[in-house]
Design a protein that fits this description.
The chain has 164 residues and is α+β, with helices and mostly antiparallel strands. It has two domains: 10-59; 62-163, PH-domain like (Roll). The protein has four helices and nine strands. The strands form two sheets. Strands 7-6-5-9-8 form a five-stranded antiparallel beta sheet. Strands 1-2-3-4 form a four-stranded antiparallel beta sheet. Strand 8 and strand 9 form a beta hairpin. The longest helix has 23 residues, at 11-33. The relative contact order is 0.15.
C-alpha cells in the first residue's frame, strides 16, 4: 500500500516559467522578422522547443509516494527512492538553492541518510508529510532546541558519531 502525497507548486514559479516561455517564443519570432538572419529561425526555434521539452521530460509529473518501506519520488522520467530504515535526519527547510529532485517550492522537507545522501521534496502539507515519515521511520525523534527550524534525527546515529 502506498500513499501519494501532493506536491506544492509556488505561484511565483509558474509566473517565472510563463515569462520565460513568452521570451523563448519571442526569440524565434524576432529572428524570423530579421531579414539578415537567413535561416537562423529554425535553429532558434529548435533550441526553444528542445529546452522546453527537456524541462517537461525532467519535471512532469512530480509526485511523492510513501510506502511502508520507502519514499518513492518521481520527477518526470527520473525516479529515486529512499528506504525509511536509512533515514537519519528529517528537517523542514526553506532554500532557493536547487534541490536534488524537482521541488516546485522553496519550502521543502530534507531527508538525509546515514551515507550522506540528501533528498529534498516539496510536499503541499509539510508537517503532515513529516508526520507520515515519522510513522514509517520510528527511529527519528524531534531535536530539542532547534528553534524555528524543526528537525528530527536518529539518536543512535548521534551515539555512533561521538564514539568515532
Amino acid at each position: 500500500m502506498s500513499l501519494r502525497w501532493p506536491v506544492q507548486v509556488d505561484r511565483w514559479l509558474i509566473g517565472v516559467l510563463a515569462v520565460s516561455l513568452v521570451a523563448m517564443v519571442a526569440a524565434p519570432i524576432a529572428v524570423a522578422l530579421d531579414p539578415t538572419a537567413r535561416g537562423d529561425f529554425w535553429w532558434v526555434a529548435l533550441m526553444t522547443v528542445g529546452i522546453w521539452a527537456l524541462v517537461v521530460v525532467l519535471t512532469l509529473p512530480t509526485r511523492y509516494d510513501l510506502t511502508l518501506d520507502e519514499l518513492r519520488v518521481r520527477s518526470g522520467v527520473l525516479r529515486t527512492s529512499l528506504r525509511w530504515a536509512d533515514v537519519v535526519r528529517v528537517e523542514l527547510t526553506f532554500s532557493p538553492v536547487s534541490s536534488t529532485t524537482a521541488a516546485w517550492t522553496f519550502r521543502r522537507v530534507s531527508l538525509a541518510t546515514h551515507r550522506g545522501r540528501v533528498l529534498e521534496v516539496g510536499p503541499r502539507d509539510r508537517l503532515g508529510f513529516v508526520a507520515e515519515v515519522l510513522a514509517r521511520a520510528p527511529q527519528l525523534v524531534e531535536e530539542a532546541g532547534a528553534g524555528k527550524a524543526r528537525a528530527w534525527h536518529d539518536p543512535a546515529r548521534d551515539r555512533r558519531r561521538r564514539r568515532a
